[in-house]
Amino acid sequence: MDTKHCTLDGWVGAIPAPGPRGTATFELIVRPVDIDSLADDAPDTVVTCTSGDPRITHELLNGIQSGDLLRIIGTLVQPKGPGENPRLKIGALEVLDTGLIPVLRDMVMDRYGDYCAILNADTDAVPVFTACGQWVGLADNPDAITTLIEIHERVNGGDV
Predict the structure, then answer these.
(1) How far is residue 131's CA from residue 110's CA, in Å, rounded to a whole number?
(2) DSSP 22
(3) How far apart are CA 116 and CA 150, in angstroms?
(4) Which helix (H) or strand (E) holds 93?
(5) What predicted TM-score, i.e. pTM, was given to this entire model?
(6) H-helix or E-strand containing 127?
(7) Which of 124, 101, 30, 39 minimizes the C-alpha distance to 70?
(8) pLDDT confidence of 119, banded at 50, 70, 90?
(9) Rounded Cα–Cα distance for residues 136 and 66 (Å)
(10) Mean per-residue pLDDT, 24-49
């Protein structure tokens, strides 16, 4: 397997998600350095980034948002096959710039203890997540949120 220690600057494509054994994973969108000399439709590179360092994982899960510009230093592992993203194991992280905060117009995020629900004026269905971002399920309507949370806690033994 071909690995290389490197530094990449790029934008967070989506909010980092918790992974197994205290890790966090997200996709970094990296633009070519010589973008001005390339065609307008030249593709960006998507790099899957993972951190096992507790301090970096905490920052990724609590302070990083989609659109943030980051400098990542770590070990790059080339993809195993065509069509797969290269992977970068993060050794150091620096926030160069923050993305714009999205404005929720017809949506509201509500907190239910260790759970979050996203209420949307366009639909009755309500997606529910743990506060750490783990998918819990889709409640049929706002009145069914607490029932969904109770079922989740029963199935998981109270672990969020």
Answers:
(1) 11
(2) G
(3) 13
(4) strand 87-97
(5) 0.57
(6) strand 126-130
(7) 30
(8) confident
(9) 21
(10) 78
